[in-house]
Amino acid sequence: MSQVFAPPPDIDRLRSRAWLAAAVGIAVSAGGFFLDRGQFFRSYLVSWLFWLGIALGCYAVALLHQLSRGAWGLMIRRALGAATRTLPLLLLLFVPIVVGLSEIYVWARPEAVAADEVIQQKSWYLNRNGFLLRAALYFLIWMGPAWLLNRMSLRQDAAADDRTFRRMQGIAAPALGLYCLAATFASVDWLMSLNPHWYSSLWGVNFIGGHAVSAFAFIIPVALFLAGRKPMDEQFQPRHFHDYGKLLLAFVMLWTYFQLSQLIIIWSGNLPEEVTFYLTRTEGGWLWVSILLAVGHFALPFVLLLSRDLKRDARKLAWVAVVLLVMRWVDLYWQAAPAFAHGEGQHGLHLHWLDLSTMVGIGGLWLAVYFGELKKRPLLPAFEPYLREAVADE
Amino acid sequence: MNGVEQETVGTYGLMAEFESPTGLIAACEAAREAGYTKLDAYTPYPIEAVWEALGHHKSKVPLLVLLGGLAGASGGFLFQYWVSVVAYPMNIGGRPFNSWVAFLIPSFEMMILLAAFAAVLGMFILNGLPMPYHPVFNVERFAQASRDRYFLLIGKIDPHFDPTETRRFLEGLAPVEVAEVEE
């Protein structure tokens, strides 16, 4: 099979739309920055975590594919790989968070720390330098293997090479373990420390489970786009989408399992310093967000994804994926936003237009870079040993 | 079933024998195109393509499992609700009597239990096992079905079934032999 699977030229159209969205989103958000600096940084954090979650999820799923093999992963490997190459952009987009650190995190305000003994006890971990050093380490842990694997995958376009194939597997195993470790600590640094008094040992796996849902919710619409155009229209088959549907269902259930475990443990323990998390999230408007999350992030997609016919219908599956992508943002907002109101006497739900504009701004920029990366390489590695099996007819 | 009395009372159906799975798959597809619906195929090993060619009917087992699961989950939850709220209300650590979060795990377990029962019992009820007698074994050559031959059966209960027409149809599919299956 020496066919070259060149990406369809349509990608440029998506890319120019993404640039447009980026321009509008960034311009509006810049206005917001001058109007309400605190709100800008808080909205920015959630939006950044949303797009980072997609990129890291794609990275983790790509590693999983290297280890487990299987036609499903081979078909989307280049689409996943393109997402891992957006990590340098996400590192660049981390800069505003560093700039607004004291606007976002209570522990970064010296006067708040001085008045709070609990934060003082934790300041050996929660401090500016440690936060920056750890963030650098996380990105090193994620970007290093991603860079290596992307380079090796490119080699499979040139010639059949069994050693490359094996070495990629050798890299993927430790990389997946390190990804989980780094993501666990990152979830503590970036999200859990928003409320430095509160802690949950399930927070990290929750974060990782969310990444996996984000990855499939994003990659299914991308696969649908590619499956509708040459050259991939002849390669993608219902069974591939069936597999994506099954994996999406599995990760939706995994996310639910982690969320529910956290709730049950905290409910059973009934400790005053832990229950605050759920008390603020069942008050006023937040109760409805919690219910929306239970229905939209679990019940509805769970019931829909049980259907074999729906999973084999790429278009319908993509709709479920889009709903889950929206829910990924709701989940992150639900985790982060109630903590921002902490100590300011306003626990209620306050959506802000900056929440939307930062999503559009970062998202447009990220998608533009993503589609640019997707366009750079053939959509299938021509000399991958299992390629023929992966695209065979049912 | 269609109100017309069939003359061939002692017949269960007609069975064609094929030498290869491809012959069987082609025959299954031809039979479905000809309008036959009460088909069954016998192969020495599972062949997914045969299942597809037969126009895999949807099994009712998933529905039974769903009903079992719903009965288990709601029954399990309501039982705990009755115990903790109606029968023996107790204040445990200041939590509400209807401590639904704590009820989730036993409800979940009950859901799994009844769904599993529904799956196993439903499977046995729907497939009629154990079945000590089945007419297909009256065909002597049917023993080959567990070795190297592939069989297609068109049942008498099929609305299109006609002893002579169906036999002619099956003989047109290039089988090794067409046998009548006695009831």
Describe, in plain words, how this protein is organized in 3D.
The complex is a heterodimer of chains A (394) and B (183). In chain A, helix 9 packs antiparallel against helix 10. The two termini of chain A are 18 Å apart. The longest helix of chain A has 32 residues, at 37-68. Chain A has one domain (10-391). With 394 residues, chain A is mainly alpha-helical. Chain A has 18 helices and no strands. Chain A has helices spanning 11-35, 37-68, 71-84, 87-92, 95-99, 101-104, 110-114, 117-122, 128-155, 162-190, 203-227, 238-269, 272-280, 285-305, 308-312, 314-340, 353-376, 387-391. Chain B has 183 residues and is of the alpha+beta class. Chain B has two domains: 11-58 and 130-182, no CATH class; 61-126, no CATH class. Chain B is 45% helix and 13% strand. Chain B contains five helices and four strands, in the order βαβαααβαβ. Chain B has helices at residues 21-33, 48-53, 61-87, 100-127, 163-171; strands at residues 11-18, 39-42, 150-155, 177-182. Chain B has a four-stranded antiparallel β-sheet, covered by helices on one side. In chain B, helix 3 (61-87) packs antiparallel against helix 4. The longest helix of chain B has 28 residues, at 100-127. Chain B starts with 10 loop residues before the first strand and ends with a strand. In chain B, 22% of the residues are buried. The A-B interface holds A 260, 263-264, 267-268, 270 and B 93-95, 99, 101-102, 104-105.
